[in-house]
From TrEMBL:
Keywords for this protein: Glycosyltransferase, Transferase
Key word DNA repair present: no
GO BP term, pick one: glycolipid biosynthetic process
Gene Ontology annotations for the cellular component aspect, listed alphabetically: membrane
Listed PANTHER family: DOLICHOL-PHOSPHATE MANNOSYLTRANSFERASE SUBUNIT 1
Molecular functions (GO terms): dolichyl-phosphate beta-D-mannosyltransferase activity
Coiled coil: none
Organism: Sporomusa malonica
Protein name: Dolichol-phosphate mannosyltransferase
Residue intervals of the Glycosyltransferase 2-like domain: 4-169
C-alpha cells in the first residue's frame, strides 16, 4: 500500500485539482492531508472530497499552524499505524508535479529512500530569480559539506520512504521543523546505511499562495546542520536494520 503525506495551510485553491492529478497518475494510491486548521477552509474541502474519493483520501486535522516538520511527523505516525509500505512526502502547491510518482515507485523497488532532485541531470527549477537559485544551491552545498552527504539535493521535500526507514530513524527525536527537516531525515537514513537514490525532478514554483520560505526557516537550517554533525555518533550508533544493497543506486556513509 502507498500513501502521500500532504501538509496543508491555506491550500484550498490548489487541492481539488492536485488530488485529481495524483489519482489520475496512480489510481490506487492513498493521500493523507495534514491540515493545520487553515483559515481558508482547506480542511472543510478535504471532508467534501473524501465523499468523492471514498477510502483513498483521509484528513488529519490539527488545531493550528504547528510547522511543516511536525505535520510530516504526525502524518508518518498515522501511516505507520496502518499497513502502508511506501510513504511519500509532497507539497500541496504544485511545486511537486504528480507525473513523477510512477518514477518514484519504480525506484523504490530497489531503494529504501528516493529523493526528488533538482540538481542532477534532468532536474531543475522554474520561475526562480537568481537570488533564490543561489540560496538553494548554496544551502545544499553547505549541508552536504558539513554532514558529508553525497547527494546533490538534500533540502528537497519530494520523497518516497520504505516504511522500515521511518520506523528506524527515531521520529520522536527529530527536532527540525522547517526546511532543515528534510536534511535531517535524509541524514538519519544515510547514517543508518539505508540505500538512497536520487531521481530528477523539475521543481515548479507555486502557482498560487505564498512561499513558506522565511528568515527563521533559513536560520534554523544553518544551525541545525551543525547540531546534526555533533550528534553523528549517537545517531549512527542507534539500532538499525541489516544493511542490504540496492545495486548502483546504493549510497553508503
Amino acid at each position: 500500500m502507498k500513501i502521500i503525506i500532504l501538509p496543508t495551510y491555506n491550500e484550498r485553491n490548489n487541492l481539488a485539482e492536485l488530488l485529481a492529478l495524483i489519482y489520475n497518475q496512480v489510481e490506487d494510491i492513498h493521500v493523507l492531508v495534514v491540515d493545520d486548521n487553515s483559515p481558508d477552509g482547506t480542511g472543510e474541502l478535504v471532508r467534501e472530497l473524501m465523499q468523492q474519493y471514498n477510502d483513498r483520501l483521509f484528513l488529519l486535522a490539527r488545531p493550528g499552524k504547528l510547522g511543516l516538520g511536525t505535520a510530516y511527523i504526525a502524518g508518518f505516525k498515522w501511516a505507520l499505524a496502518r499497513d502502508y509500505q511506501y510513504i511519500f512526502e509532497m507539497d500541496a502547491d504544485f511545486s511537486h508535479n504528480p507525473r513523477y510518482l510512477t518514477t518514484f515507485m519504480t525506484e523504490a523497488e530497489t531503494a529504501d529512500l528516493v529523493l526528488g532532485s533538482r540538481y542532477i541531470a534532468g532536474g531543475g527549477v522554474t520561475n526562480w530569480n537568481m537570488f533564490r537559485r543561489l540560496i538553494s544551491r548554496g544551502g545544499n552545498v553547505y549541508a552536504r559539506l558539513i554532514l558529508g552527504l553525497p547527494f546533490k539535493d538534500v533540502t528537497g521535500g519530494y520523497k518516497c520512504f520504505r516504511r522500515e526507514v521511518l520506523e528506524q530513524i527515531e521520529l520522536e527525536d527529530v527536532k527540525s521543523n522547517g526546511y532543515s527537516f528534510q536534511i535531517e531525515l535524509t541524514y538519519r537514513a544515510f547514517l543508518k546505511a539505508y540505500s538512497i537514490k536520487e531521481v530528477p525532478i523539475i521543481f515548479e514554483e507555486r502557482a498560487a499562495g505564498q512561499s513558506k520560505m522565511s528568515k527563521e526557516i533559513f536560520r534554523e537550517a544553518i544551525i541545525m546542520v551543525w547540531k546534526l554533525r555533533a550528534a553523528k555518533n549517537r545517531l549512527k550508533a542507534a539500532p538499525f536494520k541489516e544493511i542490504h544493497s540496492a545495486g548502483t543506486s546504493l549510497a553508503q556513509p
